[in-house]
Amino acid sequence: MPFLKSAAALLLAFSFANAAAPESLGQVRRIYVARMPDNLDRYVRTEIYKQFKDKVSVVLDRREADGILVEPGTGGNPPHRFAAASDARPTNEILVSLLDRTGKVMLWSENVGSRDDLYKRGGVHSVAEHLVHKLKHAIESSK
Q1: How many domains does the chain contain in total?
Q2: Long-range contacts of range 14-22, CB-CB < 8 Å, 24 or more positions apart?
């Protein structure tokens, strides 16, 4: 009987080890959206829900996510090593990245354009809608 308990514990530990970060963008099923300027994160969460239906969901706990959507250099969680690359871009540019759950591997990135131009054309909602559309296309293309 102790052997069965040990085997079960080993199997459980192995299954947690295999629940590592996704290897590709197409494997992302749960996204944590970090804080973004101008409450863009709130609109992005809503758009993910609307555009992905049940294929990809938004989680509110970063530990439950397969991917973390961040705007590098804005101070949002988590700080990651890609933020230094954002220093070379103008501060009004919107650059959003999807990182793996560890925050160390960039799975996708999109430069949406100038914050001033996009907000004038349709506001924050329009930016979020465009951004999530691009993300959805990238995820579906990588399957």
Answers
A1: 1
A2: 20/101, 21/66, 21/100, 21/101, 21/102, 21/105, 22/66, 22/67, 22/100, 22/101, 22/107
β 93-100/106-114 pair status: antiparallel
* Percent residues over pLDDT 70 in the chain: 70
Q: Collapse the DSSP code of 80 into the 3-class scheme (helix H, G, I; strand E, B; otherwise coil) and give the result.
A: coil
Instruction: State the pLDDT confidence band at 12, using cuts at 50, 70 and 90.
Output: very low
Structural domain includes residue 54: yes
- Is the pLDDT confidence value at 28 over 60? yes
In a domain, 16, yes or no: no
Domain membership flag for residue 5: no
Nearest to 100 by CA among 19, 26, 23, 41: 23
Which residue segment(s) compose the domain that 48 sits in?
21-141
- Least confident stretch, 6-10, 37-41, 89-93, 122-126: 6-10
Question: Pick from 54, 131, 70: which is nearest to 105 by CA?
Answer: 70
The CATH number linked to 85 is 3.40.50
Query: Using one digit for the tens of pLDDT, what is the confidence trace for 88-117?
Result: 545 678 899 999 999 999 999 998 777 777
